[in-house]
Amino acid sequence: MEPMKLRIIGPGEIPGEQYFTVRWKTLRRPLGLDIGTERLSDDDVAIHALVEEADEILSVGRAHLIPEDSDGAMSDHAGEGASTCPPFTPLSGHYDFPESDELRPAFHIRQMGTLEERRRQGLAARILRGLEETCCQVWGCRSGWLQARTLAIPFYESQGWQVFGEEYMIEKVGSHYSMWKKF
């Protein structure tokens, strides 16, 4: 059997349909959301990571560069009816935050998902590490940001990410905390 491999797809490239199918199956279908809600309007400029084995994609994730004039707030998906993901207030300069003058360039991790039968095998950690390293190499990022579903907090903490702020709800998705990591 062919070994599992991590593949990074750089900005300007769009992953194949199987990548988006895995995103939908792992993140949107469990919430009862339609096909198409796994798509983001900036997928064409994001960095995508996937772990595959024998041409089957098992785990996915993506990251995008947060524009200098943005606090990271955005729609939860492309198209109508999308919920809004809240801002990362430390990026707006209106929050007492350690080393706030050294946070940019910054990236935003989104859409991390692993097929249910392949969870707890280190695949998500490979995706996350690949995205972190690539964002730092390609964009020179000094910090990373994400909105984690409450159940995913222990995983991200095990990878060196820190929670900040209060718990909040993203409509149609559920309870989240914001997290960050300095590089």
Question: Which properties best describe this structure?
Answer:
single chain, 183 residues, alpha+beta, Aminopeptidase, 7-stranded mixed sheet, two-stranded antiparallel ribbon, 3 helices, 9 strands, globular
Question: What does this entry look like structurally?
Answer:
- With about 180 residues, the chain is an alpha+beta fold.
- The protein has one domain (about 5-180): Aminopeptidase.
- The protein has helices at about 15-30, 125-140, 155-160; strands at about 5-10, 45-55, 55-65, 75, 85, 105-115, 145-150, 160-170, 175-180.
- The chain is built from three helices and nine strands; from the N terminus they run βαβββββαβαββ.
- Strands 1-2-3-6-7-9-8 form a seven-stranded mixed beta sheet. A two-stranded antiparallel sheet has the order 4-5.
- The protein is globular.
